[in-house]
Amino acid sequence: MKNICVIGSGYVGMVTATCFADLGNKVITVDIDEKKIEKLNQGIMPIYEPGLEELVERNVNADRLSFTTSYEEGLKDAEFVFICVGTPSAVDGEADLKYVRASATTIAELMDHPLIIINKSTVPVGTGDWVADIVSRSQPEAIDFAVVSCPEFLREGSAIPDFMNPDRNVFGSTNREAAEQVADLYSPLNAPTVITDIRTSEMIKYASNAFLATRISFINEISIICERLGADVMEVARGMGLDKRIGPHFLNAGVGYGGSCFPKDVKALANMALTHGTHPQLLSAVMDINDFQRKQVAQKVRELLGGSVDGRTIGVLGIAFKPNTDDIREAPALTVIRSLANQGATIKAYDPVAMENVSNEGHNVNLVDNAYAVAEGADALILMTEWNEFKNLDMKRIKGMMREPLLVDGRNIYDPDEMRDLGFVYRGMGRGYNGEGVPNGHTAEDAAPVAGD
Ligand code: UGA
Questions:
Q1: DSSP state of 171
Q2: Alpha-carbon distance 29 to 426, whole Å?
Q3: Is 261 an active-site residue?
Q4: Which of 46, 119, 129, 294 has the least C-beta neighbours within 10 A?
Q5: pLDDT by residue (tens digit) across 186-230?
Q6: Whether the Cβ atoms of residue 344 and residue 364 lie closer than 8 Å to each other
Q7: If you measure from the C-alpha of residue 368 to the centroid of ligand 1, how many angstroms do you get, rounded to a whole number?
């Protein structure tokens, strides 16, 4: 059992704190947001993450997990302090480190015994050294400390299983002994461990996210070519992914990546490269393709509606940037909604869990109670997030409720033939053989029946 303090109660902080408590440690979470801590002390979660609420409750009841707004209280018995604060994008794509700076300064000012400070927030390469510098300069008197970089690889929506069954854990420090002590905290997880220097560890995080984003943009570019040439990107991805050197993951073509990580991290890595005199051409292309995918969705709808969406009602299924989360940061759905609304369309939308966040932000969209209410009277329907409940809709009923049976499947979750048999005019992403263009062996008519067929 170790005493751990976690600074920040966002996704990374909440999951790190709760999982370490569940592994038998005594964990205290510090957040300066009084409302958040008040709610957490009432058992109300600041985020939607499957399994989190139960795990928090279990560990609070077992007296292994607590929440406070007081750094003093958090640091009192701590041996390890995890910095898990946000690092939003500044205007130029550079990560904004004001929260990291503030926590490092406060830790330094208040620490009264040796500490291992662990950076879990995604921070530009070199930040670990910068944090060490801030801490030594801000300490009223010199007390031993070490800074360790320990990047987080969890995904929203499966953060707890990702923490408990990681592919690897990475620790970077100039102080190898400190890195090994942090690695020891993770030893019950029996995962492969990489111990390295601090900058390499920070780079592993950016390179991993940038590579995954690159795979997504790669398959999205292939999907555009598939559409033009009459091939189906779903089958192409399957055929590629069976090659062990390629693997099947992150090859789903669609509306592009969103969320709080990929867009921010690819931009930040490109910015680091630029400011250090190199040309991040591949990263720039990855970002361009990702923007283009969102534009393509709006373009498909416009085309299906004869060139203009003005005065039309368009239904949107799913707003969260991916299923199993209420997170709408950089959600492709919001870009598409904004674009169509700007062109004069009325937008109706439904998301199983993200609607509260959407209404809090005041977007130009009418939120309705379920998928069928979205379809009612709609001139076109767009699937933006592949929630399971959308996979099992009564599509015959949906078609019957729509003014025109136009369906843009931004995540390729529906079977194009089935949808056409039901009478939809179906457009997927990169499904050339199945309804885009004039596929081999098909006529233009049977590939894409006209509205009302
Ligand atoms: C991502 C990484 O997967 C985590 O390893 C990392 O820890 C995290 O960022 C982070 O840096 O904090 P996350 O943003 O939660 O996790 O979501 P992903 O499941 O990776 O999906 C990211 C986006 O890519 C979503 O918009 C998703 O719809 C999209 N995506 C994913 C595709 O369009 N196609 C795919 O094949 C896979």
A1: E
A2: 49
A3: yes
A4: 129
A5: 999 999 999 999 999 999 999 999 999 999 999 999 999 999 999
A6: no
A7: 27
Q: Does any ligand 1 atom lie closer than 6 A to the CB of residue 156?
A: yes
**Token duo for residue 126:** 């070199």
Q: Which atom of ligand 1 is nearest to the CA of 251?
A: 36
The token pair that represents 197 in the structure block: 């220097």
Measure 149 CA to ligand 1 centroid, in angstroms.
21
For 121-180, how does the pLDDT look when each residue is reduced to its tens digit (9 = 90+)? 888 999 999 999 999 999 999 999 999 999 999 998 899 999 999 999 999 999 999 999
| Burial class for 91, CB neighbours closer than 10 Å (0-12, 13-18, 19+) | exposed
pLDDT exceeds 90 at position 446: no
Q: 424, 406 in Cβ contact below 8 A? A: yes
322 close to ligand 1 (CB < 6 Angstrom): yes
Residue of 5, 19, 84, 261 marked catalytic: 261
Rounded mean pLDDT of 393-412? 98
**How far apart are alpha carbons 38 and 69 in whole angstroms?**
9
10 Å CB burial of residue 108 (0-12, 13-18, 19+) is buried
Q: Please report the atom of ligand 1 found closest to the CA of residue 152.
A: 7
Going by the DSSP 8-state scheme, the letter that residue 451 receives in this structure is T
Going by alpha carbons, the residue nearest to atom 12 of ligand 1 is: 261
267/277 Cα distance (integer angstroms): 15
State how far the Cα of 292 lies from the Cα of 283, in Å rounded to an integer.
Answer: 14
For residue 90, name the pLDDT band (cuts at 50, 70, 90): confident
Query: What residues contact 421, with CB distance under 8 A and at least 6 apart?
Result: none
* Residue 255 burial by Cβ neighbours in a 10 Å radius (0-12, 13-18, 19+): buried
Work out which ligand 1 atom sits closest to the CA atom of 208: 5
Label the pairing between strands 313-317 and 193-196. Answer: unpaired
Domains of the chain listed by start with CATH number: 3-195 (3.40.50.720), 210-427 (3.40.50.720)
Distances from the Cα of 19 to the Cα of 24, 65, 69, 165, 305, angstroms? 9, 10, 20, 11, 49
User: For residues 356 and 358, what is the distance between their CA atoms, to the nearest angstrom?
Assistant: 5
Q: What angle do CA 208, 210, 214 make, to 5 degrees?
A: 115
Residue position matching structure tokens 């939607």: 48
Name the closest-CA residue to atom 9, ligand 1: 261
pTM, two decimal places:
0.92
Reported as a pLDDT band with limits 50, 70 and 90, residue 440 is very low
Kindly report the protein residue whose alpha carbon is nearest to atom 37 of ligand 1. Answer: 250
Pocket probe for ligand 1: among 218, 219, 261, 412, the residue whose CB has the most ligand atoms within 8 Å is 261
For 297-361, where are the E strands, in sequence order? 313-317, 346-350
